Every structure is written in C-alpha cells, then in structure tokens.
Amino acid sequence: MKTATRQHLRANLLMLVAAMIWGSAFVAQRLSLDAIGPFLFTGLRFLLGAFVVLIVWSVVRRRGQADTQALSPSRSPKLWRDGAMLGLLVAVSISCQQIGLQYTKVANAGFISSLYVVIVPLIGVVLRHQTGVGVWLGALLAALGMYFLSVDEHFSILYGDWLQLAGSVVISAQVVLVSRFARRHDPLALALVQFVVCGMVSLAIGLAVDPLRIADIVHAAPTILYGGALSVGVAYTIQVVAQKDAAPAHAAVIFSMEGVFAALAGWLVLGETLAPRALLGCALMLAGLIVCQVMPMWTARREVSSDSAEPA
Known about the structure:
Helix content: over 70%
Structural class: mainly alpha
Radius of gyration: 20 Å
Number of strands: 0
Number of helices: 13
Order of helices and strands: HHHHHHHHHHHHH
Number of domains: 1
Low-confidence stretches: none
Oligomer: single chain
C-alpha cells in the first residue's frame, strides 16, 4: 500500500514538472516564429529531443537496465508501430499549436491546449475506463477556468484559438494511448521512436513549405535548444515514464497545469498581461488540480476506514 502511494506521488510530481516545462516552452515557441517556420522548428526540436533521450537510454543500457535490442525493428516491430502512431499524433498536435501561436496569446494557447483535461475523460468513457467523481469535478473546474481565460466578455475567440483546440483534440488521443503503450514497452525506447517519427515528419514538411536559411536556424538556436532539450527530451520522456503509474484522465488534469505556467511565463518574459478575468481562470484551473488530487485520496481513506470499522 505504501509502495503504491509512493509510486502515485512520484508520478504526480513528475507530471507536474513536465507541465511546468511545457508551459514555459510556449514562450520559446512564440519567439521562434520570429526566426524560423513552424514545421522546421518542430522538426529540429523533436530530433534534438530524440538525441537527448538517446543519450539517456544509452546510459541506462550500459548499466544493464535496458534491453540492448529494444530498438531493433526486426525484434520489436510493435514498439515501432506504437511509437510511430504516437509520433504522428504529436506531429499533428504540435503543428496546430505552433501555427496557432501566430494568431493568439501565449496564455490562451497554454490553456486551450490543456482542454484535453476534459476530452480525455470523455474518451475514457467510450473506452470504458473507470473515472472517479473527483477527476470529473476537477475537469469541470479546469474547463470553467479555461473559459474565463480564453473567451472574453463579447464571447469572441481568436482564430489561433481554434487551431489550439484542434491540437488539443489530437493530443488527447496521444495521452490515452501513452498510458496503454507505456506498459508494453521500455518507456525510453518508446519515447525515442515517438520523437524520431515526429521530428522526421515535421522536418520533411518544413523543408517543403518553410524557407530554409542557415542564418534563421542560428537565430532560432536558443529556442530550439530549450524546446528540444527540455520540452521534448525531458518533459515528454517524463510523461511516458510517469504515466506507467497514472490513469489517463488523472494525468490529463495534472498536465493541464501547463496553461497556468504558460500564462505566468508569457507575463514574465513577453509582458503579456493577465486581466482579472484571466486570473480567475488560472485560480479555477489550480482548484481543479487540487480537487483531482485530494478528493480520490479522501474517498479511498473513507472506504478503508469504513471497511476496517465493520465487524468481522
């Protein structure tokens, strides 16, 4: 029981760190648009992230904690199939996100991208996953928070917000599939295949549609390094590792905190201001996270106490 609790807490903390990195990476993504095309940026940063994961995987392999043949296509075709599926989903989602950032604020992008906090439980219902009341209540509060942040008093939504919403729908499917695939494969090997596929697909599109100039790539190098090494290499790997011990809907609520971190990063770095209405949205998002964490634990303790109190 204590071991399971520690694993659960560890997974929660890891996912919160990933959300913080993803949220701050929205600033890097926005700044990159001044120097490089959206597809080239996505391709380069995901290939860089794959290189970071490859280094980590090599170190783990040398310590004897990973299968030396795990990445062999002939030995593990299912790994490549599952990783390619995740990579394609991430490529579509990130492309929508990156293009949409040209037409909306960082805070809006962060919170709308987090809409999977509502979409994932809906997918879970279709797949017959058990979703507790606490997760639903947390998702409802988070969705209400997104409304106050993204929709103004005149009920207008920016064009870029629709692209962020499309990306959120696609990444919801990825979150659900990661929880399933991470139990089948070596998490680092799965993450590596996912990043390589996403990077290669995005880079191929970028070479076809985005202008390619070495000076632009050099100018965008800091944002590529941050977006690749941290947002991809570290955060997405954390996602794969942590979701081995977390339900998809539960993970989605924690990951939705990237919206809060994106809003704070946009304010600190880009000077984007948060109106009182937007701050209320951030507070509701935080409330949703706390409810999602505390309510299931409280319910479980009540059930244990009730069972122990019953006469033998």
